[in-house]
């Protein structure tokens, strides 16, 4: 929240900057262009405004630029054409105007371009159109030229009326009243015709300028609907398609990195969650095969994928509706509406997530790496049982989305260090994210928060507190007073094991489940002194010393 500080420009060795999904506003500081080693700059989904700094062209090593879903205005700087290493450029969902610079088509390494939903105008440069699909430019109603766009007006169209209506000197000299009458009639007809065209154009522009959310989920004249479970009759399929077409902004119940989620109530009162994927996936056959595979995955702690709907312009996933919000909402509430959460509820959620991940890692063939475990991706039912959503989507988007580079998936604060540095996604990436989730459940701190004066993330802060003998300070005061201290200790050490810096030092999710499933966490086999919760409250810096390996099953 707040402005991006100019001091970011002092980080001269910075390679990647991920500040997306925050509430930053104001201009992008010009000083940021000093970071010449920057390869990835991700500022999407904020409230940044002003113009895009032309000085970004100084970032000659930049490969990925994500500026979508902000409030940028002005024109696209032509200097971006100097960024020869740029592979992905996403400026969609802003208020950019003017023409698309022809220099964009000269970026030889650019493979992903998204300029959709701005206010761009004029002819799309030929070399840009030849390299990128027209869907990279949709939502700019004043663009013209090329496949998928109206023809641009010819200059000759503007002089036609003048030629038709300009009398010659010879005819003028005759002074024929009949000739003047003809000219007057012709002028009136032409004027009326032009006025009619102007009114039609004005009506269309007013209609286009209004927010029209259903158009974003417009299935066109067709739309293929596939329902996995139980089948569906022709009539109910038609009804579902009709209701999907009528979804509006008021039906939105969430929005994340993969897309917007709508709540849909069917005729039989069944409630569904419809996820509209944000990026167009052009390989329909490959997409359908992957989604149908995900539809076969059944586990009580995974959100059920019930079907999908495809059209040339949109891809929708149909999920069961989980009614009790997200874990993020449970822990942090809305504003001051933060209620106590009992340890039994938190432990049950942790165990449910662990079981779901263990199933994805050890019981699916091939195994599924989630890559984006976070409190916002854990849905809760009416019994506060956890259900993991969005599993399998990272792989689908990496494989079949031509508008998104195969970049690091995940949410800031949950991403394993080796994965953030460009390493391969393994099951240990999910284990790390789960460890951060456990720390959230214990501390009720967000993953980006450290101690009161620590400018570090939750995982690093928790490790530091434990190593300095202050591990008890990681646990929320309410839990220290109300929950069994032995259980809190054990779960804390499991969490610390999961967020080990080295992947090989992290347990498997199967080991984590075995530990969390133990009756009373099976502490009789662990040689640790018992500490009363009242003692902890008096001096939270006191914590028994024992090893993480003593907690996890061998």
CATH superfamily of the largest domain: Transferase(Phosphotransferase) domain 1
CATH architecture label name of the largest domain? Orthogonal Bundle
- Overall mean pLDDT: 79
Instruction: Compute the number of helices.
Output: 17
β-strand number: 20
Indicate how many domains the architecture comprises. Answer: 3
Head-to-tail CA distance between termini: 44 Å
Radius of gyration: 29 Å
Shape: globular
Helix content: 25-40%
Task: Tell me the fraction of residues in β-strands, as a range.
Answer: 5-15%
Poorly predicted tracts of residues:
158-179, 210-214, 400-407, 522-550
**Widest sheet, order of strands:** 1-3-5-7-9-11-12
At the fold tier of CATH, the topology name of the largest domain is: Transferase(Phosphotransferase), domain 1
The CATH C-level class name of the largest domain: Mainly Alpha
